[in-house]
Amino acid sequence: MACLSNSSKRPNMSEVVTELKDCFTAELARKRTDYHIDKSSELVTFNLTTKFGPRAR
User: Could you tell me what percentage of the chain is helix, strand and coil, using 3-state DSSP and rounding each to the nearest 5?
Assistant: First the structure.
């Protein structure tokens, strides 16, 4: 049976939680930035010109 590597090479739970919080904060910031970019690009122009007259048959 093989022995596991020394646990001192693995992060402890506090380090894991800190890293997860940092990743979560970065992801929230990215989503907020994407949301503002999406909202600012909602300007859409429409050509609403209509022509009235006889229609071809």
Answer: 55, 0, 45
